[in-house]
Design goal:
With 247 residues, this protein is α+β, with helices and mostly antiparallel strands. The chain has a single domain, classed as Class II aldolase/adducin N-terminal domain (L-fuculose-1-phosphate Aldolase, 3-Layer(aba) Sandwich). Helices cover 34% and strands 14% of the residues. It has seven helices and eight strands. Strands 4-3-2-1-5-8-7-6 form an eight-stranded mixed sheet, with helices on both faces. The termini are far apart. The relative contact order is 0.14. The protein binds zinc ion (ZN).
Length: 247
């Protein structure tokens, strides 16, 4: 294993703020979506809090925490529930130093269509990013998300999360962020060259019901419910390689 080098607290924080501005500026996130983290010691990370736009963060809003979830320092904000998947990646793979999660529109469209990014189309994608599996749907905030990403954290650099978004990691936070950029670029080129996707795996009625319960628990009583859902879940299988077209 290569020697691990950790950034200082102030370096990690300013890089998180920088990556947040880039993610927001590139339309990888809307409103308060997405989360970013950076490891500063074997069992300590800095992470973005819940409910804050990644384009408008200040160092005081960031949360310092241990991999077991203990908060070491935070303003008045708590870490996002999605930080659980970051913690899991860091625990499973000690070489990961930074993690980004966002909802870039083209990646998210592939994630909704249930299509992995695995076409051999240009060198950069293959060399710097590799192929990107699309892993099965798990409800937001659930333990299912960290459990579903864990098996991929050594052999891949990024994942599409079905009906959700994109996740990337790297040996520095910048590398993780560049992989997020690379996968959105790769997905965009794939879309232009092969897919104008024309396919969406709808969430199932049970999955929608679960989300509406979460919304109710958050005290949101407005917003209605979609009229069309899948009767059976169609996003429960990990897509690592897309099947070749049938002859
Ligand atoms: Zn998300």
């Amino acid at each position: 294993m290569r020697e691990l080098k950790f950034p200082r607290d102030d370096e990690a924080c300013s890089e998180i703020l920088d990556v947040g501005r880039r993610m927001y500026g590139k339309n990888f996130v809307a409103a308060n979506d997405g989360n970013i983290s950076c490891r500063v010691a074997p069992d300590v990370i800095w992470a973005t809090p819940t409910g804050v736009s990644k384009g408008f963060m200040s160092a005081e809003t960031l949360v310092k925490m241990k991999l077991d979830g203990t908060i070491l320092r935070s303003g008045n904000l708590t870490p996002s529930s999605e930080i659980k998947m970051h913690l899991r990646l860091y625990s499973e793979n000690p070489e990961i130093m930074g993690v980004t999660h966002a909802h870039p529109p083209v990646c998210t469209s592939f994630a909704i269509a249930g299509i992995a990014l695995d076409e051999a189309i240009y060198p950069e994608a293959l060399v710097n990013l590799g192929i990107v599996p699309c892993i099965h749907y798990e409800p937001p905030g659930s333990q299912g998300i960290p459990d579903s990403v864990a098996p991929y954290c050594r052999d891949y650099n990024a994942l599409l999360l079905a009906n959700h978004g994109a996740l990337s990691w790297g040996s520095t936070l910048m590398e993780a962020y560049f992989r997020l950029e690379a996968m959105e670029h790769y997905a965009t080129v794939l879309m232009y060259t092969g897919y104008i996707i024309g396919r969406a795996n709808l969430l199932s009625s049970d999955q929608v019901r679960h989300l509406l319960e979460i919304r109710e628990r958050l005290g949101v009583v407005s917003g209605g419910a979609p009229s069309r859902t899948a009767s059976e879940p169609v996003n429960i299988r990990d897509i690592v390689e897309n099947a070749p077209p049938e002859e």
